């Protein structure tokens, strides 16, 4: 049996969800971002207990078809931006259609209807978070980051970054030292 889980976006999420499955006596066959497969049919009480536990941790079992498709779109984008090397010059509509086996027009309309925003805006938000992460490491230049994330130019990346954060990438990077404080300084 498969479950679709909302808000699974990283390997730690997979570990937490797996632990919760085992806690309620379910035996996971596979745990992937947004999707879990268990070996046998669980009883309703175990499913309810699992969902209650997951909600406390910021996750949730998705039980409707639209919700599952939306979560699959988000998972595909998160995988593309945060865990894939093949982003440069990739056509998002072809990528999502290929990953989910649905027409992109249908996916786009469904996403907008359910989320109240576009797939493109979600993609940009994910890209900007990745830019922030890469800038924090201070190993790549802005030009290298733009190239890695498939931006046509540093100017275009900077423009999107400023629209999302209200700050230029250069100013954001300069604030990096002030974002965290040592425990002894608190």
What labels describe this entry?
about 190 residues, alpha+beta, Alpha-Beta Plaits, Arc Repressor Mutant, subunit A, 2 domains, four-stranded antiparallel sheet, 9 helices, disordered C terminus
Note the quaternary state here.
Answer: single chain
CATH class of the largest domain: Mainly Alpha
How large is the radius of gyration?
19 Å
Instruction: Indicate the low-confidence ranges by residue numbers.
Output: 180-184
The amount of helix comes to: 55-70%
General shape? globular
Q: In the CATH hierarchy, what is the architecture of the largest domain at level 2? A: Orthogonal Bundle
Would you kindly provide a brief summary of this structure?
With 186 residues, the chain is of the alpha+beta class. It has helices at residues 11-23, 44-56, 65-83, 92-100, 104-115, 119-137, 142-148, 154-165, 169-179, and strands at 2-6, 28-32, 35-38, 60-62.
If you had to describe this structure to a student in words, what would you say it looks like?
By secondary structure, this protein is an alpha+beta fold. It has two domains: 2-63, 2-Layer Sandwich (Alpha-Beta Plaits), CATH 3.30.70.100; 67-177, Orthogonal Bundle (Arc Repressor Mutant, subunit A). Helices cover 62% and strands 9% of the residues. It is built from nine helices and four strands, in the order βαββαβααααααα. The chain has helices spanning 11-23, 44-56, 65-83, 92-100, 104-115, 119-137, 142-148, 154-165, 169-179, and strands spanning 2-6, 28-32, 35-38, 60-62. It has a four-stranded antiparallel sheet. A hairpin with a 2-residue loop joins strand 2 and strand 3. The N and C termini lie far apart (49 Å). Residues 180-184 have low confidence and may be disordered.
């Amino acid at each position: 049996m498969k479950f679709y889980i909302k808000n699974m976006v990283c390997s730690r999420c997979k570990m937490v969800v797996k632990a919760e499955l085992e806690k309620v006596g379910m035996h996971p066959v596979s745990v992937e971002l947004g999707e879990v497969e268990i070996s046998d049919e669980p009883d309703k009480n175990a499913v309810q207990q699992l969902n209650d536990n997951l909600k406390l941790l910021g996750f949730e079992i998705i039980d409707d078809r639209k919700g599952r498709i939306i979560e699959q779109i988000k998972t595909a984008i998160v995988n593309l931006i945060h865990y894939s090397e093949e982003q440069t010059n990739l056509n998002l509509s072809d990528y999502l259609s290929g990953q989910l086996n649905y027409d992109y027009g249908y996916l786009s309309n469904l996403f907008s209807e359910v989320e109240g925003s576009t797939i493109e805006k979600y993609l940009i938000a994910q890209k900007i978070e990745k830019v922030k992460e890469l800038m924090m490491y201070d190993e790549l230049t802005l030009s290298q980051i733009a190239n890695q994330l498939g931006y046509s130019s540093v100017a275009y990346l900077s423009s999107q970054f400023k629209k999302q954060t209200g700050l230029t990438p250069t100013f954001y990077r300069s604030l990096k030292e002030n974002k965290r404080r040592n425990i002894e300084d608190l």
